[in-house]
Amino acid sequence: MTPAERQTAAEQAVAEKDWNQAANLWEQIYQDEQSAANNFQLVRALVADQQYVTARNYASEFESQYLASDEGASVYLRALIANHEFISARIVIVARGKSDWTQAALTTLSAAENDAEAHLQSTLTTTMRHFYHLSDQPVQAQVADLQAARHLTMQRYLTAAKFLLVDPFLHPLTRSEVLYTLHELQVNTPVQMQWLLDDRQLTLCPAELTEVGADEISLATQQLLKIQLADQDVFLYENLRELLQLQLMYLYPRPELAITDPADWVAVLIAQQTGQETTNLSEEQEKMMKIQQKIQQFSLDLQQ
Q1: What is d(CA 49, CA 47) in angstroms, rounded to the nearest whole number?
Q2: Which domain of life is it from (predicted)?
Q3: Is the terminal CB of the chain with fewer CB neighbours within 10 Å at N or C?
Q4: Distance (Å, rounded) from C-alpha 182 to C-alpha 103?
Q5: Which residues neighbour 296 within 8 Å (Cβ) at sequence distance 6 or greater?
Q6: What is the rounded average pLDDT of the residues 160-171?
Q7: CA–CA separation, 68 vs 259, rounded Å?
């Protein structure tokens, strides 16, 4: 079967509502040409054939395209809700801004969450308990429970998340990820968060936070690193750019509490990662070096 014949057969299967055949054919077409248009046809057929997990996985490859239209968002949302990924579904809805579509989608999601509370209460309770006790798990095992928590209803997720944000035993990168999820959900009530570097707790409104690395201090620090290294040593620059992004994730959402001077932070970062001597440091640079070393140790803990 030629590509043209395969596409004609796929379109015919859609017209006849033979969704299993349509999904099989569109999957072959998509493997040959992984375009957004082919992805949508494949996902639509998979959803109609009730292959929701596969549909969701394919849709995530072009998520921004699905969020760009009501039709695309509706198909994506249907897959997420059918998979009981209530948190991911709400993030998709919130990301599209307020509209008639959004209101209708929130109503659909709320009905699905109520149905889950009525019929899947035991499963939700178990998932919530595991989420609550994330810090009891080895750091690497926390990833699976973080993903499982996206199957919680909004109220359950928020209740557990507030507890986790002040759990001093939770790995700080996990804590930042939980906070960032609340930001994506546009939670507009204040929460408390255990700060990375000391015993203080920060009071934050997730909806008011920036994206990771998008605040003024983070942008200035990233720009300085680029100016100093991008044209001189591309390989070193790419490595340190990724490392800096990781540091900013640890410091989210208040990098300015650690990066009191972007130039000093970049200087210490380059020195430590290239084996340069770090003598004659100022008091502020000493503080930054210790913070960077602490972050490095947290990252090493992830590998154990």
Answers
A1: 5
A2: Bacteria
A3: C
A4: 20
A5: none
A6: 94
A7: 36
Residue 221 · residue 258 · CB < 8 Å: no
The chain-wide mean pLDDT, for the chain, equals: 94
Nearest to 241 by CA among 259, 222, 256, 263: 222
Q: DSSP characters for 242-277?
A: HHHHHHHHHHTT-GGGT-S-HHHHHHHHHHHHHT--
Confidence of residue 137 (pLDDT cuts 50, 70, 90): confident
